[in-house]
Amino acid sequence: MLLALTAAITNHSCKKFLDEKPNKKLAVPTTLKDARAILENNSVMLVGETADEISADNYYLTDADYNSLEETGQQRMYTWEPDHHYDNFLNDWFTAYQKVYSCNLVLNCLAKITPTAADQNEWNILKGQALMIRAKVFFTIANIWAPAYEATTAAQTLGIPLRVKEDFTLTSTRASLQETFEKIVTDLKMSLPLLPTVGVNAAYPTRVSSYAYLSRVLLSMHRYAEAGLYADSCLQLNSSLIDYNTLSATTAAPFAPFHAEQLYYCISWAPQLAVGRAIVDSTLYPQYETEDLRRLIYFKVNANGTQAYKGGYDGLAGSFFSGIATDEIYLTRAECYARAGDNSRALADINALLRKRYRTGSFLPVTISDNEALLEFILKERRKELVMRFVRWMDIKRLNKEGANISLQRKINNQTYTLAPNDLRFALPIPEEIIRLTGMPQNPR
Amino acid sequence: MRLFITIFLFLLIPGLRAQMINISGLVVSAHNNEPIEGVTVKTLQTGIATATNQKGIFNIRLQYNDSISIGHSSYSGVVLPAALFATQTTYVVSLQQKISALQEVTVNTGLQLLPKERSTGSFEHISEQRLNEQVGATVLNRLEAVANGLYFDKKRAGTGTGIVVRGLSSIQGPKEPLIILDNFPYDGNLNNINPNDVESITILKDAAAASIWGSRAGNGVIVITTKKGKLSQPLSITLNNNITFIRSPDLYYQQQISSSDFIDVESFLYSKGFYNSRINGAAKAALSPVVELLIKKSNGSLPAAEADALIDAFRQQDTRHDFDQYMYQTAVNRQHAISLNAGTNKMSWNFSAGLDQNINNQDATYNRLNLKADSRFVLTKKLDLSAGVFYTSSQSQSGKPGYGDVSTSTGKLPPYILFADENGNALPVMRTYRQAYLDTVGRGRLLNWNYYPLEDHEHTNTEIALQQTIANIGLHYKILKGLQATMSYQYQQQQTDNNLLQTAASYFTRNITNSYSVLNQTTGVVTYRVPRGAILDQAAAIQKGYNWRTQLNYNKNWKNNKLFAIAGADVKSVTTTSNSYRIYGYNPDLLTITPVDYAAFFPNYVTKSTSQIPNGLGLNETTIRFLSVYANVSHTLLNKYTVSASVRNDASNLFGINTNQKWTPLWSAGAAWDVLKEKGIKLPAFSQLKLRTTYGVSGNADPSRAAVTTIVYSSTNPYTLYPRARIEQFKNADLRWEKTAMWNIGLDWALDNGRLKGSIEYYRKKGTDLFGSTAVDYTAVPASNLVKNTASMKGSGWDIELNSRNTTGMVKWETNMNLAFNKDAVTNFFLASQNGSAFVGNGMSISAAGGKPVYALYSYRSAGLDPLTGDPRGYVSDSISKDYNVLNGAGTQFSDLVYHGRALPSVFGSMGNTLSWKKFSLTARIMYKFGYYFRGRALSYNLLFTAANGEAEFANRWQQPGDELRTNVPSVIYPNNTNRDRFYVNSTSSVFKGDHVRFQYLTLNYQPDLTRLFSNRIKGADIYISCNNLGLIWKANKAGIDPDYRNTDLLPGISTSVGIKLNF
C-alpha cells in the first residue's frame, strides 16, 4: 500500500509539487520582462567607470588630499604607476565586465525567445539596447586598458577581452585592438535599426544614443567623415541645448536630473575626483572668459582661492556625468566639419553651442577663417565644455597619435611625475589578479 | 491521588484486615504498555517476594491489609495496597521508566523509539536533569556544556545556532544541524521552545542520522522530545519558578586605543591635512570635537592655549564610562512554569504553561508565553489517537544602544566621546554632519539636527511580536500483530510583526525631515517634503507549513530473532510571506498619517544631491518543499547480533536543479554485537559491553548553488520606473551534489555494575565533490569567488564519554566527562591561485590546501620591523622585503606562508562533578577547547585613520630605533600604505593559541522533604542556585583574550539564578 502510495506521489502530483518556485521574486531569465528587468538594474547598468578621468589632466590633488586617499592603489593610479592600481576586486574592470555579463545574459535570453508579433518591438528594443550598452562598455574598457587606436598598427596591438558569451568557463583572452574596435562599431551599427528614436529619458538607450556613441568611437579611430555623419544623424533627432542663463549658478546642483542635453545617462564617482579634493587644473580655469557662465556653473571657489569642481551635470550634486550628451556631439560634428575643411558649418555648430554658454547679450559669434586655427579653437572649446565628462583621456590619447604632443604632469610630495605623449602607460595595467587567473598578457610597460 | 484511594479503601473495608488473599497483577511499561519481565514484587508486612514472568504477570498471597512494593531497576517503584488487586482478577500496574533507564533502553530518533540495545548508530541522549543544571529562557544553548562531540562556534552563530556536530562536514554548504521537535523538523524560531517542556534531547551524529532524516541532516540531527502525559498515571503537577541576574558585560575588556593616543593621531592627521577633503567636501561629513577644536585653533577663532586645554580635557575621558553608567544595567530574567500530567488507561494528557520575562543588560525586554497541550486516546484496542498543540507568544522591545552601536558617518565613535555632562544632561554627539555646520544650518529655522544618544533610544522603539502555533494529530492503528500504521499531520504557523517607531523627537526622523526640507532664504519659511511627525516602519512575516507523514512500523519476534522495521513517506511544505512598509507623518495618538510623494526627486538640504524619499516597501514570498520516502530495518539474532540498514530519498523544489537531480538517495548500514552475551567470552568486570558500527553516505545540495542563472526582482529603476532585477546566481552547469561518507564505530561499556560506564566512538568522514569557493576571473562573471565542486576532505575523530560514581554512601560524588577529538584535512583542492593572499586571514573562511585542515590559520612570515623605520618586513624568495604589493601579491606563494594550525578546536569537551550529601547536591561544570589558533585584533592604520577604528596596541608601536627589539607593531607612516597594513594584520604576531578551560556553571540543589508539611501534597521540592559564565580558569594566550569572545565581542557578565521547583 505504501509503495503504491509512494509511486503515485512520485509520478504525478510530485512533479507539480516540486516545481513550485522557492522564492516568488526569483526567476530564471526566460521572458522579455526578465530581460528588461536585468537592463533596468540602474545600480549596475548606469554607474560608469572612472580610471580614465582619474588618469586625465582636468584636475590635480594637493599633497594632503593625495596622502589622505584611503587605498594605496588610488594613489598609484593618480601618479600613473606602471602596476598595482587596485587593492581589491571591486574595481573598474569588475564593474565594466559586470555590465558586459548582464548584456550577454539579455542577448542569450532573447536568442531563446521567438517573439510574437506583439512582442517583436520590445524584443528588438531589448536587443538593440543590450548591444549598445555592451559596445559602450567595451569602448570604455578599450579606452582605459588598451592603447590608442591607430589603423596601421591596430591588428598587431593587444585589445581587450571581448566576452560575448554567458558561459564563464570559457577563458578570457585579449582580442586585437582592430577586432575590438570592429566589434564595437559593428554592434553599435547593428543596434540602430532595432532602437526607437525616443525613450522615457536618457536612462533608456535609443537610436540617438547609439548614433552619439558611434560618433565618439569613430572620432577616436580618426574616422572623421563617419564620425561627423553619425554626429549629424544624432543631432537631427535631438539637437537640444540648455541655455545656461536659465540655470542657477550659485547652487551646488545647477542641473536638473535628466535634462535636455543628456542622451545616455551614466553616473561616476571616485575619491580622487571628489568635490573637496579635486582642484581644477591651473592652466584650464583661466581659459574661461569672464562672461562664460561655465565658470560659475562648473566650478566653485575654494577657501584658499583655488577652484573646485561641482560635478552635477548628471543632475545630482557631487557626482559626475559619464554618459553622453548633445554638447559633445555638437563639438564632434564641428571638429569633423573643420577637419573636412567645412569652416562655415563648423563655425555654425560652435557658435550654436557657445551662444548658450555665455551670459545673454555678451556672446560675440566666432569668426575664425583659418581652418587650422578653427580646429584648434574647437578642440580648446571641447576641453572647456567637457571637463570631468570622461572624454579627456580619450582625447589626449587620440590627439597625441596625431602629434598633439600633450604631456601630463603631477607634482606630489616634492616629486614630479610625467606621462609623456604616447607613453605605454596610457594603457593602464590590467588588474594583476586577472592576469594571474587567465594568463592573458599584461600591457607592456 | 493514589494515596487518597488507598486511604479511602482502608477506611471502607476495615473488617477485612486480617484476611489472607491471593492476588494477581500485570506489570506493564507506562511508555508502551508492553509487559515487563523480572519485576520484583514484595509484601511489606510479611516480606514475601516474587517476580513477574515473561508475560509480566505475578501472583502472590498476602493479608488483605498488607501492601506490596513493586520495583525494577529501570522503573520507578510503587507501593500499592493489596485491596486494590482484590477488586479485579488481573490488576494492571503501569510503571514509569526511570530517566536514567530511558537512556539505557530507548533512543528517540524522531521517527521511532529504538531499543538502545538494538541500535547500531551514534545517538547521544541528554536528560532533563542534566539540561536543567543550567537556567535560562532557551534550551539549545545549554547543550555545549553537557553534550559530547559538539561545540558552539560563536563566530559563525550569526546565521543560526552555531552548533557544530563532529566538526564540519561541508566546506561551503549549510553547516547547521537539523532540529527535530517531537517527530517533525522544526522551522520556527528556536527561542520559542520552553525549556521546561523539554524531557530530553537526543543528538544523532553519524551517517544513520542523515539516512533517517535526509539531505538536511548532513550536519547531525538534534531531536527535542517534550513531556507527554502517560497512561495510568495519577495527576502530577510541576511548578518551576526562577529569577536570573546577569551582570553587565565588561566593556574594558575591549582592546581599544586610548583616548590620549587617539587624540595624538587626530592631531597628527590634522597637521598633515588629512581632514581637508572632509572639511571642504559637499557631504559636510562629521568631524570629531577634537578636530573641530584644531580647526578653530588654526583659523584663530579660538586662542591656542584654550583649544589645547579643551583638547587635553578629552584625553581624560573614556566613552566606555558613559556606556557603563548610562546604557548598561544588570539584566533580570524571570521564569515561571507549570506542567500538569495525568492518564487513565484510556487516555493521557499533559498541559503546560510557561512565562518568561526578561530585561536585558541594555534594558530591552523580552516576554514570552508558552502553552502546550498534548493528549492521547486509546480509541479501540487497535486504534490510538494523539493530538497536541504548542502555542507561543512573545513580545520584545528594544532598549538602549550598546557599545559599538553608536557610530558616525566617518567611522567609529572616538574613544573619548561622552553622552552626558556632569549633571547628567544629554550631550550632542557627532553623527552625520559636522557640528560647526549644524550650529549655523538653516539659520535655526530647521528642526534641531543634533544627535543625543543618551535620550535617542527613548524616541526610537522596535517592538517585535511573535505568535506561533503548532498543532499535530496522529493516528496509530495496529493492523496485525506487530504491524502498525501511523499517520500524522502537523501544521505550523508563525507570525512575526516588527514595528519600528521613531518619534518626531528621534534623530532619525529629525534628520530625514531636515534632509528633504527646503528653506526659502527670503521668507525663512521651511517646506517639509517629509511631513513632520513620527515615522513608523512596519514589517510582518507569516510562516505557514505543514508536514504529512505515513509510516508503517513492523515488529516481530520469533525464536531467536527480533525484527524491527519502518517505512514511510513524508511531505513537507513551508511558505513564508512577508511585507513591509513605512508611514511618514504618523501620529500614534490619533493614528493619522500624511501622504508623501515617493516618485519625485528632491534635493538633499546639505549636499543638494537629489533622491527619492525612501518608501520602505517590500513584498516577499518563499516556499520550501520536500518530498521523502524512507525505510529502516534492524534485525537482532540471539539477542546479541544486530544488523541494520536504512535508506532515504529526498526531493525538493530547490531552484535551478534539474528534476532528475532533485532526488538524492542516502543510505546507511550498521551492525552491533553484545559481547557479554557471547558464550565463549567471560568478562566478569563488565556489566555491559557492546560494539557497534555504521557506515553511510549522505548528500548535500545547497539551495544557494544553482545550476542556472537566476535573477531576483527588487523594486523599480527609479529613473524609468520599470521593474528591475539583479543577477543572483550564475549558471554553473557543472555543479554536482556534495557527497559525504561516514563510518562510525562505538563501544558502550559499563564496569562494576555501572559504577564506571561510558562509550568510546571513533568515526571517519570522507567528503567528495565538496563545494569549495575559488577565485574566478571576473572578466567572465561578476564575482570574485564562485562555488564549485572543487574539494575533497577527510576527517576523523573520537567521542569519549565517561561516567563514574566515585564515592557512594553519605557523600556521593559523581563525575561525567565528555571528550572529543576531531581532525580533518583537505585531500584535494583546486584553487585557481596559489597566492598566499588567498589563504591568510582569520580562519573564518576556508583557507584550505591539500593535507591541511579545512579551516586553518596561515600568516605571512614576518622578518620583524625595520630597525631604521619600523616598517613591517616579510620575505620574498627568502630575502627580506618591504615591497608590500609583491608580499601581498604573487611574491608570497602558499608554500611561503607560516602554517599555525587548525582554526577550529581539535580537542574539546566538558567535565561535570556532582557532590551529593543528604538533601544537597552541588554540580560544577567546566568546558575546554584545545588544539586551535585564532587571529586576534591587529592595528590597521588605514582603519585608524579613515574609520577611527584603533587598537590599544598603538601604544606599543615602533617609535625609535631599538623599539623593534620589543615590539611588532609597525611605526606610523603618512601617507599610509594599505598593503603595509594588510601585510602586518595577516602576519604571525596577531595569532594566538586558542586553548582554554572555562568554568561554565555551578549549581547547588537542595531537595527538602516537604511531604509532611502540606498534608502530603508536595511530592518533591528542589531549591536551586546556579551561576553561569564564570569565566576562564586557564587560557594559553597571554594577551588577555577570551578565545570565545575575541575581536569585537563583549565578554558576558556572570549570571546568577535562584529558583524553586515543586512537584505535586
Task: Please sum up the structure shown.
The complex is a heterodimer of chains A (445) and B (1064). With 445 residues, chain A is mostly helical. Chain A contains 18 helices and 13 strands.
Helix content of chain B: 10-25%
Q: Report strand % of chain B.
A: over 45%
Low-confidence stretches of chain B: 1-17, 99-104
Number of strands of chain A: 13
Task: Quickly count the helices of chain A.
Answer: 18
Overall geometry of chain B comes to: globular
Largest beta sheet of chain B, briefly?
22 strands, antiparallel, barrel
Q: Calculate Rg of chain B over CA atoms.
A: 34 Å
Task: Kindly describe this structure.
The complex is a heterodimer of chains A (about 450) and B (about 1050). The radius of gyration of chain A is 24 Å and the shape is globular. The mean pLDDT of chain A is about 90. Chain A is about 45% helix and about 10% strand. Chain A is mainly alpha-helical. In chain B, about 10% of the residues lie in helices and about 45% in strands. In chain B, the strands form 13 sheets. Chain B has a 22-stranded antiparallel barrel. A five-stranded mixed sheet of chain B has the order 10-15-16-13-14. In chain B, strand 43 and strand 44 (about 870-875) form a beta hairpin. With about 1050 residues, chain B is mostly beta strands. The N and C termini of chain B lie close together (about 10 Å). The longest helix of chain B has 13 residues, at about 260-270. Chain B contains 18 helices and 54 strands. Strand 1 (about 25) of chain A pairs antiparallel with strand 36 of chain B, so a sheet runs across the interface.
